[in-house]
Design brief:
With about 200 residues, the chain is an all-beta fold. The chain folds into 3 domains: about 30 residues, no CATH class; about 100 residues, Immunoglobulins (Immunoglobulin-like, Sandwich); about 45 residues, no CATH class. A hairpin with a 4-residue loop joins strand 10 and strand 11.
């Protein structure tokens, strides 16, 4: 792998007011030979409520199927360090995080290396996924589109979490007669449960 660095300094003088701006830019170019590791599935950013189970997938393959000189080895890390002991890795190299807690939130990285029989690492690639807490509970009743005509009462139902929602009704009153309107549902705020 070759690394090239260059620093560019640009100056700009503005005639009115005599202001001068100097910018320094660091350009780093890293070049490498064609990778012999190809991604099949990379871990994806995930947002879930606390308490849910999480599975991060990670799968790669050798770009040269005839190359038997090395095998692929997988290693997971969490925020640049070791994953927690309660987290497990499946035989397909996916990572399982049971019952999401605040301590589990962060960046999970899957590193795949081509390793020789002697344990020498020939090449490595990595992919990361961010795990964050979602602030909405999962849907119990999925929202759906509703069609309404003039004078119809529309009930929009959307249930998340463990409590029943407060149901609001709306009446189409400003539409010309015999005109239908499509009302797609969009969650715009948290609904508090009714008494």
């Amino acid at each position: 792998m070759t690394r090239h660095e260059a620093v560019f300094v640009m100056s700009a003088l503005f005639p009115r007011g005599g202001h001068q701006i100097r910018l320094a830019l660091l350009l780093i170019c890293i070049t490498s030979a064609h990778s012999l590791i190809e991604w099949v599935v990379k871990p994806e950013n995930t947002s879930l409520p606390l308490g849910q189970d999480v599975v991060f997938s990670c799968l790669a393959k050798s770009a040269d199927a005839s190359d038997t000189s090395a095998s692929l080895a997988y290693r997971w890390s969490f925020d640049g360090g070791k994953v927690q002991d309660r987290v497990s890795r499946f035989s397909n190299n996916s990572l399982f995080v049971p019952g999401l807690t605040e301590a589990d939130l962060g960046v999970y990285t899957c590193e795949v290396s081509r390793v020789t029989v002697n344990g020498n690492v020939l090449e490595s690639v990595s992919a990361s996924a961010l795990l964050i807490k979602s602030y909405l509970e999962p849907f119990i009743i999925q929202p759906s589109s509703v069609f309404a005509s003039l004078g119809d009462t529309v009930v929009l139902t959307c249930v998340t979490g463990k409590s029943s929602p407060r149901i609001k009704t709306a009446t189409c009153s400003r539409l010309p007669p015999r005109l239908s309107v499509r009302l797609p549902l969009r969650l715009t705020k948290t609904v508090t449960p009714g008494p």
